[in-house]
Fold this protein.
Amino acid sequence: MGPLVIGLIVFTYGPVIYAAYLSLNEGDYIRPLKWVGMGNYARAFSHELVGKAMGNTAYFVVGTVPAGIALALLLAVAMNQKLRGIVFFRSIFFLPTITSAVAISLMWAWMYNPQFGVINTMLKAIGIKGPKWLASPDWAMPSIIIMAVWRGLGYNMLLFLAGLQSIPKELLEAAAIDGANSIQRFFRVTLPLLSPTTFMLVVLSIIGGFQVFEYSYVMTRGGPLYSTLTVVLLIYQRAFETFEMGYALSLIHISEPTRLLSISYAVFCLK
């Protein structure tokens, strides 16, 4: 047990304890630490940007999780049909998942461009004036949510597809013999049997939503007017741009219980 215990102390518990100690100090990577006690936490609780970042992150989670789960389930049902070339379409839908988040963000930022972006160009062709998307405080976060849902569809679809293919066909055939139509079979047989998969995807989606960073950093840097500033982006800015490591660690310790409470609430609702 010695190597395991040493590894846990050096690589897990040691950094956690040292991070807690650093959050009680003030300093950067050059100057010595200055003990401030709970000053970083008091500053975090009183700073308006912290509340703004937490609200934006919650907005992102609420916007991506239900839409992503529902659309992925519908897509999985469609991809579960026995049609010629269905494997090709499954691969196409899964492709964004294995593509770099930075590359995806840069591509969508170009598509969202108000002047020459492909989205506004298509809207203009049918007589609709497109919004400013990432340049608008009202549309910036919805724009990122749309992109995030699109990118996550392939991964969620794959897991739902595995769940659909594991459902015994005898149950669906028995329901059909009893007179249930396709909609009744879906809601009374398929959907209840998919509850373990749904539960796992909801929890993973919430965890991933609270950790969102690349999209806001690459596409907007938290703007405009802090409308896309997320908790992880704020932590990054304080730790590696203004070099306030103690303050950044206090933000981590404050935001972690919020994510745990959200996951516990999701587990409670699914049960």
Summary: The two ends are 37 Å apart (CA to CA). The beta strands are 25-26, 34-35. The CA atoms of residues 63 and 142 lie 8 Å apart.
